[in-house]
Amino acid sequence: MEDHKMTMARQHVTDSEVAIQTLYDKVVAVTEDARKCYIEGSTSKWDDRQFAQMMFLDGCFVLRFICCSLDKETRIKSHNIAFVRRDLFLLENQLPFLVLEALMLPDRNTWLENVNRFVENTRARSPRHQEGGWLDGIMKSFFNHRDRKDRPKETKQQQQPVHLLGILHGQLIDQSAHDPLSISEWYSYRSAIELKAAGIHFKPSKTSRCMDVSFEPAMSFGTLRLPPIMVDDSTKSMFLNLVAYECCPDAPDDFGVTSYLCFMDVLIDHAEDVKELRSNGILLNFLGSDKEVANLFNEIARDLVPNPRAYAEVIGEIERHYNNKVKIWIAEWLHTHFSTPWTFLAFLGAIFALALTCFQTYLEAYGDKKLN
Asked: In a 3-state reduction of DSSP, which class is residue 204?
């Protein structure tokens, strides 16, 4: 791997058309700040020169890999790209973003766009929900320096990218989505199938952000909107590392990904729940059977504790719907008689038979009188 790093680092320097000494000096200038990103004492075995060289080599490798993964004509095999991409988002492999920024020459904005696209491609989404602009909005909150003077001082630090995993977390979580005054009791656990039987339908949200969850009540039904997500072999690793990142002292304290996984764990108990969400465009299963997807969410969410403010309003609305006995009775009646074409036809047959019986009774009672 070190040989590959050296080769790709040389290629990054060549492509940047910037002198290697200039790039190296940029990294040396941020070496002291980069050390502070690690646990105290964990980098003491390297002196400043060795640490700067390591940061330079790793930073060049990461940026070069980002370019290769975005280049459709790259010679790197797709499975190798998948493995390296997965490793780049492991918490223990994170490289301080300020090191990457130091190497973003000559055009920093172009590099930020490449990072934008790379992070966006990392989280696979349903192809029918490739909404435009949501990641750009999040990345602007990270990278747009022109309007920072107008932003509140208390949120300025939170908007700085720490590393690639932190950017991915910011892509998934809208920190302003939490209502500080609302606290959810999380109530009793009800799966997707149970909610469907109670008259709650599922539809995909407009974005793939974990906090883009809403409930739309109606007369006797309700619609729960959930962010669409593609589940594949990299999903478990991605979520576990995001959960680990949220446990770090300097990470955002919203526990957004953790709360999302707990919420999905509530909805998913069995393969039938996965099938219901999959049939409504919320889950796109590239992992295997629906049972495997159910096991994945159940295993990841085991022992996790959600933010009590996450989804508080949505959970409360679902509970109010569920406690409305009239709505539940209507929903269960419709689910029993109209859930499939066969039950619907059987219901029509029963109505038709009842109508014929009434008509026959009427003829027997009044038909003879009219004839007489």
From this structure: strand
